[in-house]
# Entry
Amino acid sequence: MKKILINILILLTPVSLPAVAHGTEPHAALDISQAWARKTGARTASTAVYLDIKNLSEKVEKLLSVGSNRASMAMIHRSSEQDGIMRMEMQDTVEIRPGATVSFEPGGLHIMLTNLDEPLKQGQLFPLRLTFEHAGEVEIFVEVTGIAGLEKQ
Ligand SMILES: [Cu+2]
# Structure
């Protein structure tokens, strides 16, 4: 009886709530943080989302797909400069090695959202779904920043 009571008490102990700021969501094997996108103008139909994904597990993790209810299409892109021209290439997956952090940042990896339902307004938070090989589907929140972007913490 005593053991059961202790177990119930543990269940009733408030667990830390997911912090929505900067898209942080506690997850057993992944630490996803600093998720942001710039605000968009009235006529802008697409935007890029940036974030950091740290693999806390001992297995190689793979980001397989992305999605958002704010956009009709979401893709993993990588920007690169070739002969002075910026190009974006679609990536099928992104590998995150054990203990490593992969940063999606301006000029490199990003999540491209196209056909936004409405312009993104500074201060908004919107959900983004990330599907991983091992961790499965993870929903995070993306912070809409001003034009300057997010100051890394
Ligand atoms: Cu892109």
In short: The chain has one domain: 19-145. The chain is about 5% helix and 50% strand. The chain has a mean pLDDT of 86.
